[in-house]
Design a protein that fits this description.
Elements (H helix, E strand, L loop, with lengths): L47 H22 L4 H28 L6 H20 L5 H33 L4
Helix pairs in contact: 1-2, 1-4, 2-3, 2-4, 3-4
The structure holds fe (ii) ion.
Fe (ii) ion (FE2) binds next to helix 3 and helix 4.
């Protein structure tokens, strides 16, 4: 490659590589791509900590989606997936603590079982050395379809109504 550069460019020192373009330059990026899920006000359940955590879950799902769409490497994809799983565990623990502190709420056993089911499913995948980005994508979509939206309506909204009646807001 010709060493002649634009006069305004900072010359790298001898032996140094010029600053590289990002590996995905020119490829479709997060900016050019719609997120998997856009948070909408109607998803709110009216308990601040639960709504805040749901918003963060949506962001983490979208970050994982960005990795997949941008074709980032397996370590990055699995790193984002692990961040999503860690925060999911924290979120479930928050809800279950609120249940314990406020008399359980409607369908408590079922709600706790749903948390365990989803968590076991995604964790099993990330512990599997053979898992791939395609697996991560499949989990992301299942996460969205089976949990994030349905679970908010079916489990978290009745719980939140219960919590609000017990003075949590
Ligand atoms: Fe929940």
């Amino acid at each position: 490659m010709n060493a002649k550069r634009d006069a305004d460019a900072i010359e790298p020192k001898a032996g140094e590589q010029p600053t590289k373009e990002p590996a995905n330059a020119g490829a479709p990026t997060a900016r050019a791509w719609r997120p998997f899920l856009v948070w909408r006000d109607e998803f709110e359940v009216g308990v601040q900590i639960i709504d805040d955590q749901h918003r963060t879950l949506v962001e983490l799902v979208n970050e994982l989606g960005d990795d997949l769409v941008a074709g980032r490497d397996r370590d990055e994809v699995l790193g984002s997936l692990r961040a999503l799983i860690r925060f999911t565990a924290e979120h479930f623990a928050t809800e279950e603590r609120l249940m314990s502190e406020h008399g359980g709420g409607p369908g408590e056993e079922h709600h706790r079982a749903e948390h365990r089911r989803l968590f076991d499913e995604v964790r099993a995948l990330t512990l599997d050395e053979e898992s791939t980005e395609a697996d991560a994508a499949a989990v992301t979509m299942r996460f969205l379809r089976d949990w994030l939206l349905r679970h908010i309506e079916v489990e978290d909204r009745p719980l939140s109504d219960w919590l609000r009646r017990h003075g949590v807001d």
